[in-house]
Amino acid sequence: MNIDFERISELITKGQIEQLQEQTNQAIETGTEPAILLNKGLLPGMDKVGQLWRNGDMFMPEVLRSAKAMSKAMDILRPHLSKDDMGSAGKMVLGTVAGDLHDIGKDLAGMMFEGAGYEVLNIGIDQPNEAFVNAAIEHKPDVLGMSALLTTTMPRMGEVINSLKESGIRDEMAVIIGGAPVTKEFADEIGADLYAPNAGSAVELTKQYFAQNNS
Amino acid sequence: MQISVMPKTNLTMSTRTNYSIQQTPHFQILSDNQKERIYNGMLRTLQYTGANVHHEGARELFKKAGCKVDGIKVFFPSEVITNALATVPPVTEVFPWNGDESKKITIEKDRSYFGPGPTPPNFIDPDTLERRPYIRKDASTVARVCDALPNMGYVQSLGSISDVSNGLADVYEFADMVRNTTTPIMSWSFTRNGCRDIHRMAIAMAGGEEEFRHRPNYIFYGEPISPLVSDFHAIDKCMYCAENRIPQVYSPCAIGGGTVPATHAGQLVVALSESMVGVIASQLISPGTSVIIGGVQSILDMRNSIYSYGAPELSLLSAAHTEVVHYCGLPMYSQSGCTDTKKMDIQSAMEAALSINAAMMSGANFVHDNGYTESGMTGDIFQAVMADELIGMARIIEAGIEVNEETLAVDVIKNVGSGGHYLYEDHTMKWFRKHWQPTLMDRNSYESWQEKGQKTMKDRIIEKTRNLIDNYEGPNNEVPENADQEIEKILQEAEVRIKNDPES
Ligand code: B1M
Questions:
Q1: Which ipTM value was assigned to this complex?
Q2: A103 and A53 in one domain?
Q3: pLDDT at residue B291, as a whole number
Q4: Which residue among A111, A149, A150, A206 is best mutated to probe the pocket of ligand 1, counting the most ligand atoms within 8 A of its Cβ?
Q5: Which residue of A74, B184, B253, B426 has the fewest CB atoms within a 10 Å radius of its CB?
Q6: Contacts (Cβ under 8 Å, ≥6 apart) of A176
Q7: Residue A207 belongs to a domain
């Protein structure tokens, strides 16, 4: 069967979740190469979303809906994809640090990563340092994301990074941090790999990071 | 050097809004039917969706009162809500610690007070005009300047102190502010312990616990979490305030389209429901203790993902919320004078002017965030000084027009007749001083504006603000010595507390 990749891309940009799931299932059943489906259908769809977003032609909720569609399609594809097929889009552990109850910014970041094909484990708000480290040990994420909205809770991010070092797993993942009072300088100071001023750039920066570090 | 400042008067601090003879103009957003439907939406939400309360003691309290409790979720039957509303006091007074009657606050439906806002991490440095972290000395600067501003009816700090022990920004802030202003403060804290430290300082300033009960001298501010969550510390602090009869605000920062529905009616239902949990807790613990609700109501900007403090929706939502909160019989904590811009510019003035006027015309009782910039990330005393002028202007509009024989002046009109002028009339002598006089707005002729240095509004705001910072001493030397010592002692004890347990 001939798969209409353009249609798949369009379902992504329009955020039509159920139809996209149907089409994805159909494509797999009829023997379409999963990596081809990803690279010719889904990813171009998300690229288009990124473009529309940057031009101001799409708004956050629309982008998130597309991201959701992407993530649902990825749930179907993931078991059929090899690590190489996936490129940098792997696993992410994400949470807001201990003592901090702000969650919407973190959730936005999480949804954007899902949209980029990541499997995101959102461990929630007010998460003690050990929760991040334990989740990292258990799930072996490619990316560990931390959010803090309070100047008083920002230091927890540095502590988590130190604990990751002590556990000997710091270098196995990229650490990205964000939240309204967080800065690039702070990220450098505590030894995070990435700082993102907003959810959209978080994904872009992560992609760039892996492109540079894997080459 | 002591400089003269305009006194806070009944006109500058608070006028009756929507006075019964319809003296004051007022706008209305919602019809009675719409208010009722939003109110009922709240009743339906609390009864059938419930709210999470992360506090065993509070859940016990609600259960005893007849609420259904399922795990951390509490369902509130409507009679529990209406009973609570029935015991909220119609009037509570808050007294300046030095007894200055002109600065007394009356928490009452028809009165409004404007003030700055709490806790942004950054501050615009008064000398360099650059953004930097908020530091300890900023708290007393803000307190002093607001003490001198005639239209600031209560004070918040415009920042959270970054250069004291982690976890004590709340306590140091109050310690420094209360000694630099007699205008009542609206304080905040991380935990019950911070609440207690602040309360002890307030008692020291009041001259004893009994005195405080008779003459409370500050208001406490706490926040539930949208959607429909009261976290442990928020409700714990609310309970502490009720136990100690501290007038308090319990209100969320609801983000339209983010943490609450994108529809304004839906936003108000959720925000009202969250606040009501605190109202109920406070009234169950201590019927008749003062509680104010409302909070930050604005939208998530869906292009930039920021919580917008300059959006027109902020004013619309806050005004509508004011009507619903008044419909419940409660005082309203509203918002104005804030902006999304980063530097003092035309946008900051535009957004402040619009929101201040809207808040004034809505009849809200406490209007905070005058002086917030960068969407709540930076406090700016210059913005607060500008807001003070705008509040003064808006008060003139809100004061309305008096119409009676004297003001109709038909006899004076007859006297002057056609042609001529009114400048010599006794009537003019008597009334012209009621016209508002600017302190910042330029009304010079071109020539005198040139002569006076061709100053722009920005120049004048900076000049006025720095003049107050440099020259206005505030009430610091009036602080009773024993109260001063007690405050220092409380700070030392707080240091020990936080050293022993950083989470305390
Ligand atoms: C992993 O990778 C990444 C990558 C990018 C990431 C990322 C992770 N995380 C975020 N990003 C980035 O991408 C997102 C989208 O592009 C952005 O996320 P943001 O989260 O910044 O943006 C959101 C989409 C919208 N913005 C927000 O959601 C935050 C808005 C403001 C107003 C805010 C809110 C709403 C709340 N608050 Co709070 N609150 C404030 C905030 C002021 C502000 N302007 O930020 C701030 C952060 N709060 C503050 C304070 C003081 C507090 N708050 C508190 C509580 C709350 C509410 C619960 C009421 C509520 C949160 C509700 C919720 N469900 O999350 C209290 C603390 C509770 C606690 N222990 O956490 C309390 C202490 C108040 C009190 N008196 O109790 C201030 C911080 C001061 C400081 N020194 O740090 C504050 C700046 C407000 C202020 N002006 O005072 C980027 O930062």
A1: 0.90
A2: no
A3: 98
A4: A149
A5: B426
A6: A143, A144, A145, A146, A192, A193, A194, A195, A196, A202, A205, A206
A7: yes
Contact in structure between A167 and A181 (CB atoms under 8 Å): no
The token pair that represents B445 in the structure block: 């002729």
A99·B503 Cβ contact <8 A: yes
Task: Write out pLDDT tens, residues B194-214.
Answer: 999 999 999 999 999 999 999
Q: How far apart are CA A8 and CA A105, in angstroms?
A: 29
Amino acid at B432: F
Q: Distance, CA A181 to ligand 1 centroid (Å)?
A: 9
Q: Tell me, yes or no, whether A106 and A209 share the same domain.
A: yes
Residue at A39 is within a domain: yes
Rounded to 10 deg, the angle between the A104-115 and A199-214 helix axes is 50
Q: Is residue A85 part of a domain?
A: no
Residue-level pLDDT at B18: 47
Structure tokens at B84: 């609570």
User: Which residue range forms the structural domain that includes residue A152?
Assistant: 90-213
Confidence of residue B20 (pLDDT cuts 50, 70, 90): very low
- Identify each DSSP E strand in B276-411 by its residue range: 291-294, 296-301, 306-307, 332-335, 366-368, 372-373, 378-379
Chain B nearest CA to A101, separation (Å): 8
Dist CA B336 CA B356 (whole Å) = 5
Q: How many domains is chain A built from?
A: 2
CA B19 remoteness from chain centre: 22
Are residues A131 and A199 both part of a single domain?
yes
Q: Are residues A124 and A69 in the same domain?
A: no
Asked, for residue A143, whether it belongs to a domain, the answer is yes
Residues with CB under 6 A from ligand 1: A 94, 99-106, 108-109, 145-147, 149-151, 176-181, 196, 198-199, 202; B 118-121, 160, 188, 222-223, 225-226, 252-253, 255, 259, 305, 307, 375-377
Based on the domain organization, do A69 and A102 belong to the same domain? no
Whether residues A60 and A126 share a domain: the answer is no
Residue B110's pLDDT band (cuts 50, 70, 90): confident
Same domain as A122, residue A99: yes
pLDDT per residue over B111-131, tens digit each? 999 999 999 999 999 999 999
> What's the predicted TM-score (pTM) here?
0.93
Q: Which residues of B253-286 are buried (b: 16+ CB within 10 A; e: fewer)?
A: bbbbbbbbbeebebbbbbbbbbbbbbbbbbbbbb
The CATH number of residue A54's host domain is: 1.10.1240.10
Asked if residues B181 and B144 have their Cβ atoms less than 8 Å apart, the reply is: yes
User: From the centroid of its chain, how far is CA A163?
Assistant: 23
> If 0-12 CB within 10 Å is exposed, 13-18 middle and 19+ buried, where does residue B88 land?
buried
What is the CB neighbour count within 10 angstroms for residue B99?
10
Residue B244 DSSP label: T
Q: Please return the burial class of B430, using the count of CB atoms within 10 Å of its CB with bins 0-12, 13-18 and 19+.
A: exposed
Please check whether residues A187 and A95 belong to one and the same domain: yes
B50 touches chain A (CB under 8 A): no
Of all residues in chain B, the percent with pLDDT exceeding 90 is: 92
| Kind plus residue range of the DSSP H or E element containing B143 | helix B136-148
Q: At A146, phi and psi to the nearest 5?
A: -125, 140
Last residue of a domain, one of A19, A53, A80: A80
- Residues of chain A with Cβ-Cβ distance to B55 below 8 Å are none
Looking up residue A108, the CATH number of its domain turns out to be 3.40.50.280
Work out the pLDDT band at B503, boundaries 50, 70, 90. Answer: confident
Of B233, B305, B308, B374, which to mutate for an interface test with A (greatest number of A Cβ within 10 Å)?
A: B305
Tens digits of per-residue pLDDT, B210-250?
Answer: 999 999 999 999 999 999 999 999 999 999 999 999 999 99
Asked if residue A21 lies in contact with residue A8, where contact means CB atoms within 8 angstroms, the answer is no
